[in-house]
Design brief:
Distance between the termini: 31 Å
Shape: globular
Number of strands: 8
Number of domains: 4
Strand order of the largest sheet: 1-2-3-4-5-6-7-8
Bound molecules: 2-phosphoglycolic acid
Number of helices: 38
Strand content: 5-15%
Structural class: mainly alpha
């Protein structure tokens, strides 16, 4: 596929990876040649499988697509007619050719980020060293840096959100391809080694071409959890100690003191099998099983580590403390390690019996991380005392660090449930007690009731009471939480939290189930109104003596990025999120409570996504003081954490951003900036809702112009696309809402409202103030740069094409109006930025979008055609082809929902 050679030309100028003043031209030649190499192999594979004529057809389509993108109407016409002429059996292979190419280009780009060529610019060590040096140059005392790093708390919450379109077996193959590319970068490979690696690439690409792109069935929540554990096993288990080595070294270099031995700067939490919000497949039984599997996986990984140490630590000299532990053993370290190995084996057998549903005899098993930590620490100290520091700080240190990061549970598990389900449970309880209907009570009555019951230790639920199945499920889940050691649990998150009673209700249900030690109960505020009232809700809670006694100086609040954006548009939502964080910090400060803000962000801009550094530095001052807790979802898990080399880089990025935010407090907004944001927020929300809520034909238009209905059929995750059946966009989850608009390339939710509000300000002659905000306030600068990014991915021509093919004439004015608005918005943002073209400072990003368009355009044209045919006459073949186009476009956009 020589055709692909053109795909990765170097950007005309430097890229955004280097800041001004340090311009160093990144070298894209390796990336270019890798993309072309993978493209060639894909071409050969397709020719071998489908024949030369097929490859010629693909090449024809590509050339026409390029011509059309370069502005030739004749090529566009010819492209469309070529695509329309495809026979039914050609649809899937043609779509796959383009989709697979985009996947391969993504792998090459991902590998480029961790390549040797880019190491001088992008490696984790470089990032850490450079940032620590900058902090010192900016006058931060070394002790302060060391303290900040020692107190670092990064909790990454892996969710099962259905946004990962690539199936697991493909992800694995993609990882292998990346690995081959990395190997090929090494100097000194023999010809034999090189040809072996090329053969392996050909083998992997052939496996991909001849395999299925999709799961046939939806994964179960247990499958999802296993996928999460595989990420730990394949990537994070290695990445965490590696990241800590690099951090330790950088700290030693710049601050003269390393990382404390028991530092645990990062840990992982999982929602897979625990997040039941709107997902009836996640039951109490599933959560119990997943938590056992998680322990099993941890034990299994530690066994591998201990086996390796057993091979290595055959030294005989030891200190007195170890001698005492190891008695007469000639090789004392091994003696200790053998004990650990036995403990792990027993534990694994015990868990396996529990998983089989048996009740194994109580034996001495691993339940606390100290059982691992103490003997391993004793080995470590003995080695140091006996002059074997080098050995102590080798593999053994890595294992110690894993113990602190992964504990005995591997990851902690959060539980999430919708507030309405707790209300329903309390409603049934109060009715059965003859107290009336909790659901009908006002907030004050609910709160008074809950507080009374919380202070009362007698059982709340009547004996022999039979709740409805839904309520039973809520109670069973609380019972599962009660069975778990506190360290196994992260938080109980309440989605759609609105009132203080929503939080107290969960405390009561947990108390009733017998939860002894307090686990954080975190309200998730996720609509504009709820974010605006977050302060009031939290201060009501903290005013109460039962509550403040219960939380003992710490609380967690979750900020919902996607649903608030779906509710009010991105600009208003982002300001509401910012304000809520500020207000919550203030109110918690007043009560002397340490607040952990938990950010529920998605990968796409419409769901609060932004590059890590930008996202964190644009948060309000003080918001990272107690660490970072943030969701990592779907394909973001793969692209940020899926390979250990990437994960090390991601952890370093987070570390650097948190240190900067905490040590060089970001500028607080000036009063006139705030007023401006208030005005922009009100205007943009009104403009957004005028379309999404008030335009009566909007929902029918959305249904026709995007593949929303077809998306629900994609077996991506265990969760349904809607919170409840039927309904307009209110019941549709944020993910498919955004996903649908990124397929037809209108990207509506990521920009609607913002440009109109900004234009009003410009029209009032206040552009200068906006420009000042953009220059001096990271929050505002990030908003504008995210808008630019979305505008660059949006494509009016494609959106219009979807309308032509799919939307009935009477609804077409809606699309035309939206596109007109988009064009005006782009012009407004360019005026504010003082730029002539979008992404003028991010030329590489602009370039990759432009080059990918050549491959995504045929997929978009095909998709529109397929949707039309399938809506007239459904067929499995058409549906399969639609799915391939969906996956291909998502690969081209590099994200989905
Ligand atoms: P949720 O998440 O629908 O699970 O709340 C939405 C998102 O992360 O975009």
């Amino acid at each position: 596929m020589g055709l692909l050679l053109s795909c990765c030309r170097p950007a005309a100028q430097g890229c955004q990876l280097v800041s001004a003043g340090q311009v160093r031209e990144p070298d894209y030649s390796g990336l270019r040649s890798n993309v072309s190499q993978l493209g060639h192999i894909l071409g050969e594979t397709m020719a071998a499988a489908e024949g030369d004529a097929f490859l010629e057809l693909i090449e024809r389509i590509r050339v026409l697509s390029k011509g059309a993108r370069d502005g030739s109407p004749a090529d566009r016409e010819a492209l469309l007619s070529q695509l329309r002429q495809l026979d039914d059996e050609q649809l899937v292979p043609v779509a796959r050719a383009f989709a697979q190419f985009l996947n391969l280009a993504n792998i090459a780009e991902q590998q480029h980020m961790v390549s040797r060529t880019m190491a001088p610019l992008l490696s984790a060590s470089r990032n850490l060293n450079k940032s620590l040096l900058e902090l010192r140059e900016e006058g931060v005392a070394t002790q302060q840096i060391a303290d900040t790093i020692a107190a670092l708390k990064i909790e990454l919450v892996l969710t099962a959100h259905p946004t990962e379109i690539t199936r697991r077996t493909l992800i694995h193959k993609h990882g292998e391809i990346g690995e081959c590319l990395s190997q090929l970068e090494l100097a000194g490979l023999t010809e034999r080694e090189q040809s072996r690696l090329h053969a392996r690439l050909r083998e992997l690409i052939a496996q991909i071409w001849h395999g299925d792109d999709f799961r046939r069935e939806r994964p179960t929540p247990v499958d999802e959890a296993k996928w999460g554990f595989a990420v730990v096993e394949e990537s994070l288990w290695r990445a965490v100690p590696e990241f800590m080595r690099r951090l330790d070294e950088a700290l030693e270099t710049h601050c003269g003191t390393g990382l404390p031995l028991d530092a645990a700067p990062v840990s992982f939490v999982s929602w897979m099998g625990g997040d039941r919000d709107g997902n009836p497949n996640v039951t109490a039984e599933v959560t119990r099983e997943v938590m056992l599997l998680s322990r099993w996986q941890a034990v299994d990984l530690y066994q591998g580590d201990i086996e390796r140490l057993l091979e290595e630590l055959s030294m005989t000299r030891c200190n007195d403390a170890l001698r005492e532990l190891a008695a007469e053993a000639h090789e004392p370290y091994r003696a200790i390690l053998r004990g650990l190995r036995d403990l792990l084996r027993r534990t694994q057998q015990h868990i396996e019996a529990l998983l089989r549903g048996e009740t194994p005899a109580p034996v001495d098993i691993l339940v606390s991380e100290e059982q691992l930590w103490e003997p391993l620490l004793a080995c470590y100290q003995s080695l140091v005392d006996c002059g074997m520091q080098l050995i102590a700080r080798g593999s053994l240190l890595d294992v110690l660090r894993r113990v602190r990061c992964f504990g005995v549970h591997l990851v902690r598990h959060d539980i999430r449930q919708d507030s309405a389900r707790h209300t329903q449970a309390l409603s049934e309880i109060t009715r059965s007690l003859g107290l009336g209907d909790y659901a009908e009570w006002d907030e004050d009555t609910r709160r008074a009731f809950l507080l009374r019951e919380l202070g009362n230790r007698r059982p709340l639920t009547p004996r022999r009471w039979q709740p409805s199945a839904d309520v039973q499920e809520v109670l069973d889940t609380c019972a599962v939480a009660a069975e778990q050691p506190t360290r196994a649990l992260g938080a109980y998150v309440i989605s759609m939290a609105r009132q203080a009673s929503d939080v107290l209700a969960v405390h009561l249900l947990l108390q009733e189930a017998g939860v002894e030690e307090a686990i954080p109960v975190a309200p998730l505020f996720e609509t504009l109104d709820d974010l605006s009232r977050a302060r009031e809700v939290v201060s009501t809670l903290l005013r109460d003596s039962w509550y403040s006694g219960q939380v003992a100086g710490r609380m967690m609040v979750m900020i919902g990025y996607s649903d608030s954006a779906k509710d009010a548009g991105v600009l208003a939502a982002s300001w509401a999120q910012y304000r809520a964080q500020e207000e919550l910090l203030e109110v918690c400060g007043q009560y002397g409570v340490e607040l952990t803000l938990f950010h529920g962000r998605g990968g796409t801009i419409g769901r609060g996504g932004a590059p890590a550094q930008q996202a964190l530095l644009s948060q309000p001052p003080g918001s990272l003081k107690n660490g970072l807790r943030v969701t990592e979802q779907g394909e973001m898990i793969r692209t940020k954490l899926g390979w250990s080399s990437l994960a090390v880089k991601t952890l370093a990025l987070y570390t650097v951003a948190i240190c900067r935010a905490n040590l060089l407090t970001p500028p607080a907004p000036r009063d006139d900036w705030r007023q401006m944001m208030e005005a922009l927020s009100a205007d943009s929300c009104a403009a957004y809702r005028a379309v999404v809520r008030e335009e009566p034909e909007f929902v029918p238009y959305f249904r026709q112009a995007t593949p929303e209905q077809e998306l629900a059929k994609l077996p991506l995750g265990s969760r349904p696309a809607r919170r409840k059946a039927g309904g307009g966009i209110e019941s549709l989850r944020a993910i498919p809402w955004i996903f649908a608009w990124s397929q037809n390339r209108l990207m509506l939710p990521a920009w609607l409202g913002a440009g109109a509000a900004l234009a009003n300000v410009v029209a009032q002659g206040k552009a200068a103030l906006l420009q000042q905000m953009a220059q001096e306030w990271p929050f505002f600068a990030t908003r504008l740069s995210m808008l630019e990014m979305v505008y660059a991915k949006a494509d009016e021509g494609l959106s219009a094409y979807y309308d032509d093919v799919l939307v009935p004439a009477e609804l077409q004015p809606i699309g035309a109006g939206l596109r007109k608005q988009l064009a005006m918005d782009i012009a407004t943002v360019l005026t504010i930025q003082g730029a002539e073209v979008l992404l003028s400072e991010q030329t590489w990003t602009a370039e990759t979008i432009r080059l990918r368009n050549i491959y995504t355009d045929p997929l978009n044209f095909l998709q529109a055609e397929l949707l039309k045919r399938n809506r007239q006459r459904q067929s499995p073949e058409l549906e399969r082809a639609i799915m391939v186009t969906i996956a291909g476009i998502a690969a081209g956009m590099r994200n989905t929902g």
